[in-house]
Every structure is written in C-alpha cells, then in structure tokens.
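quick one, 120 residues, struct below
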Amino acid sequence: QVQLVESGGGLVQAGGSLRLSCAASGYMFSINAMGWYRQAPGKQRELVAVISSRGSTNYSDSVKGRFTISRDNAKNTVYLQMNSLRPEDTAVYYCNADIMTIVRVSIEYWGQGTQVTVSS
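---
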C-alpha cells in the first residue's frame, strides 16, 4: 500500500513563505511525475506545479516566479517552496504522484491535503 503524507501547511501573513513536503512510502518500483494541486472553497482543484522524475518542472501562471517545486528521489519526497504568498493562495494543497508499482502498473496517488491560509 502506497501512502503520500504531506506536511508544512499553516497560517502565514501575505508576503510570507511556507514550505510543503510530501513523502511517499510503501512498496513501489519507481515514482514518475510528482506534483502539487490546490483547491480553494467553492472552486475546482487546480494544478500548481509538477516535476518529472528527471527534474523537469511546470508551473501554473498564477504561481510562476513565486513557488518552486523540487524533489529528492532518494527520499521519495517532493517539496513546494512558496514565497511572496498572497491571500488568493489560500487553499487545501494536495500532493499527487504517478507511481509505478512493483508489478509495473502505473497508479495515481493523492495525499490527504494540507491547509494553507494566507492572511491579508
């Protein structure tokens, strides 16, 4: 059973920073892309950033230049460094990973979500 466990959310003032972490554990052959999504109240879940197994990254326009996604393959962990936070960044942030199982089947997993609240 694969699990994604997130940490690092919280309450911060506008202009501040937070760093989210997401560690994958369990039986797996490899991890392909990993990413972060967010969902604000009354809105659909949206992609924030994604990173491939080789380190290629992609960001939504709303966070480009402020957020940085990275990963530590040895620790099966993905990070999201969030700087210059704005009230509109307030949302539940979800970790996502495309994991190749030991029987060579690719399955998408989600974390439980971590709340990020930015006060004005």
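The chain has no helices and eleven strands.
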